[in-house]
# Entry
Amino acid sequence: MTDRHAGYVVALDSDIREDDAEAIISAIRMIKGVMAVQPVDADPMSAITHLRVRRNILAKMYEAFDNA
# Structure
């Protein structure tokens, strides 16, 4: 038996301005089967999460190079 998908989450590589996003939103709406596109507003928590992940990755890279 095959699983059924109800939707997808699309993540952008960086936050973009609402007025600059219209082309992306329009393109997603053109995909067959897309019923709605709802933007997710950037907030301080997403910025904090991004910085924490970046810090963790950099720490692991420094540790790997230091041990090399």
